[in-house]
Amino acid sequence: MSSVAAGGPQGCLAQNEWLCGTYLRTRQSELLDATVEHIWITALSVTIALLIALPLAVAARRWRAARAPALGVTTVLYTIPSLAMFALLLPVFGLSAAVVVTGLVLYSLTVLVRNILAGLDAVPAEAREAAQGMGYGPGRLLLEVELPLALPALLAGVRIATVTAVSLTTIGAIVGYGGLGNLIYDGMESYFKAQVLTASAICVVLAIVADLLLLWLQRALTPWTRVRTRKRAARAPSGPSGPSAPSAPSAPSAASAQDLVGKAG
Amino acid sequence: MGIFGDVWVWLATGSHWTGDGGVLQRLGEHIYLTGVCLLLSCAIALPLALWLGHVGRGGALAVNLSNAGRAVPTFAVLVLLSMGPLGKYGDWATIVALVLFALPPLLTNAYTGVREADREVVEAARGMGMTGRQLLRQVELPLALPLIMTGVQTAAVQLVATATLAALPGGGGLGRLITAGFGNYDTAQVVAGALLVAVLALLVERTLTLAERLLDPMRRRPARRPTSV
């Protein structure tokens, strides 16, 4: 027995071990397909949710009467457990990916509407009045002043929604469209440890990578938030190299490293 | 629209409610799982968070735990634990998984609540000669209570949802109605089970929001906001 576990190339599969290099090698294409399905379900859901959430949040901001219903409905939707949500959508769409995508869109909506609204609420009245004084109409005010200023809050919402969607996509396995969740589900039924652990691990990695990519996008799209960090870093007494060139690029990279540690822990 | 009729018929059939694996048994399991895990996770998280908030340490941990909890799929943890060594001890794999996912909202909210208790009030209390224990019990805890209750509410809703998923690796609870319905290609049962789960989750959320309002020690005070700003 022990010789098989130690040396045989089929060893870890036959022994049903948690970690198995043979599994990774032999099921590469299966893992890749599941990962691709996982990514497109997540990406599609968050994109659709963003397209719906933007006008919804803008409407809730413009018309006070729309605010309470928009927030109320999305909160109720968020309270419904994922398995129940997918099950409730089953008679509408049948056994299809639309069940999973629609469920994830509804969850992401909650996060996005709340964050975009908070971002729009936080736009300083001075900025708005200055733009109005310069002759900006409501459309231009929204596109050129309010939305850019709400962008950090919006992107923070996209990050939360995406990471949540990556994790919730696994439940889609109940209708057969769960990406890596399908492998976890099958692995559970056949008691295949390596498959369950590998698929779970890829899922977590996917969530972290998506979060870091969006963090990078957030930094790239909202350079003014980084200027503030730089100033703070320059003012800090710990900088040994002074306020000149070397300290400036180091500030953002230090911040992203901090975030990485947080996600991994 | 025939499905609504089917769901109604399913729910109106008495034999689906009583007996082995009926709605009442599954509801009982669900409430038991949620309740036990809520008590356990509160017993672990609240003292720890209150103490960390009181001494002002571990803030990064309390905040990052929520982010980490979001990235880890609940389903994966449930399956991994039920297949691991804990799986031999009946419900324990499920209970551990549920508690793990209830901890982050409890820790984060209770910690933030204590940390953000009005520092002037805390300093004043300390100046009056209160000991650390008195300060925590008579000043910081009451001030943090609204946020602690928000954490409890979030954790409870999370627990109801996770307990539903516990049915996938073969645990009890209302989720079993859904998975059994999928197994029999019985859409009416799937939707009926989902409706019951959704109603339970919303009921738990509403009840705790109400409890939050009733328990808030500041609710009878006149609004102080205009003067404090």
Describe it.
The complex is a heterodimer of chains A (265) and B (229). Chain A has 265 residues and is an all-alpha fold. Chain A has one domain: MetI-like fold (Orthogonal Bundle). Chain A is 81% helix and 0% strand. Chain A contains 13 helices and no strands. Chain B has 229 residues and is mostly helical. Chain B has a single domain, classed as MetI-like fold (Orthogonal Bundle), CATH 1.10.3720. Chain B has ten helices and no strands. The termini of chain B are far apart. Chains A and B meet through helix 6, helix 9, helix 10, helix 11 and helix 13 of A and helix 3, helix 4, helix 7, helix 8 and helix 9 of B. Chain B: It is a multi-pass membrane protein. Chain B: It is found in: Cell membrane; Membrane. Chain B: Pfam families: BPD_transp_1 (PF00528). Chain B: Belongs to the binding-protein-dependent transport system permease family.
Q: Note the run of SSEs of chain A as H and E.
A: HHHHHHHHHHHHH
Oligomeric form? heterodimer
The CATH homologous superfamily name of chain B equals: MetI-like
How is the main sheet of chain A built? none
Low-confidence stretches of chain B: 223-229
Q: Strand percentage of chain A, roughly?
A: under 5%
Strand content of chain B: under 5%
**CATH topology (fold) name of chain B:** MetI-like fold
The chain pair with the largest interface is: A-B, 42 and 44 residues
Structural class of chain B: mainly alpha
Q: Portion of residues in helices of chain B? A: over 70%
Task: Give the count of helical stretches of chain A.
Answer: 13
Give the overall average pLDDT of chain B. 85
